[in-house]
Amino acid sequence: MLLPVQIGDYTDFYSSKEHATNVGKMFRDPENALLPNWLHIPVGYHGRSSTIVPSGIPVHRPYGQTLPNGETTPVFGPSRLVDFELETAFITTDANLMGEPIPVEDAEDHIFGMVLFNDWSARDIQKWEYVPLGPFLAKNFASSISPWIVTMDALEPFRVKGPEQSPEPLPYLQQKGKKAFDINLEVIIHPENSEETVVSRSNFKYMYWSMAQQLAHHTINGCRVNSGDMMGSGTISGPTEDSFGSMLELTWGGQKPIKMNDGTERKFINDNDTVIVRGFCQKDNFRIGFGEVSSKLLPAVDLKF
């Protein structure tokens, strides 16, 4: 497979309230899981387009620094906690000029369409490195996307209201009408030479911040967005445990392993597992498919020093 477009720049957001809450409960204060800014801005970070690959391209287990439990000195080696993140991404079309924000009411005119997205993550590397500037080596080793774009026109019949936003966003983020889309999503883990297991079923309609709000916030400071840029939705987690969008959440940090159909268990992704993300929209008597993004996790390469 080939990439559906030559991607210039890549930004990833963090726009699922359920996902952000779950992560906050695990790693911060369960009573104050969301950081103070989360309900006011679509949080995001800039990633690497150089390692965005199409469906079918395998990914090697990454190396990095991690801090073992109870230790004060980091060690170097392959990540032990490789994870998927169930996401979608949108591809931009018309570019804006540097210094000219894209208004939220016009933002969808700058979005060509959407793809499925597996945002590979190394949780042990991420835990050690993410303060103070966010993830680095834990994310930039691979990002897998589906090979074709579903246009915004095709998605129009599946437009829905989306979650209520409280407190009310600041004026530049206030979007009228239905701002979400009913897109069914699922994640499958397929061990090598064994039976596959569906580990998550979720829906894009759960996302708290919309694509238009993400793009409006991205450009409110005058940042230029080019045609063919990619914006990741952030992990798409729903309200139930079986709709969580990562192994981190599904196993609650590895405390509750998932039982696979072949009798084995998974806390995170094993070598030679294939992770498959599928998506579709369905209404009345017609259906629109996103296809799938499928990628196999290979063992770490042999590094010598």
What are the salient characteristics of this protein?
305 residues, single chain, globular, five-stranded mixed beta sheet, Fumarylacetoacetate hydrolase, domain 2
Fold and architecture overview:
The protein is mainly beta and 305 residues long. It has one domain: Fumarylacetoacetase-like, C-terminal domain (Fumarylacetoacetate hydrolase, domain 2). Helices cover 11% and strands 30% of the residues. It is built from five helices and 21 strands. Strands 1, 2, 3, 8, 9, 11, 12 and 17 form an eight-stranded mixed beta sheet that branches. A five-stranded mixed beta sheet has the order 4-21-20-15-16, with no helix packed on it. Strands 5-6 form a two-stranded antiparallel sheet. Strand 15 and strand 16 form a beta hairpin. The radius of gyration is 19 Å and the shape is globular. The model has no long low-confidence stretch (mean pLDDT 98).
CATH class: Alpha Beta
Helix/strand/pairing category: mainly beta
- What's the CATH topology name? Fumarylacetoacetate hydrolase, domain 2
CATH superfamily placement: Fumarylacetoacetase-like, C-terminal domain
CATH-derived architecture: Alpha-Beta Complex
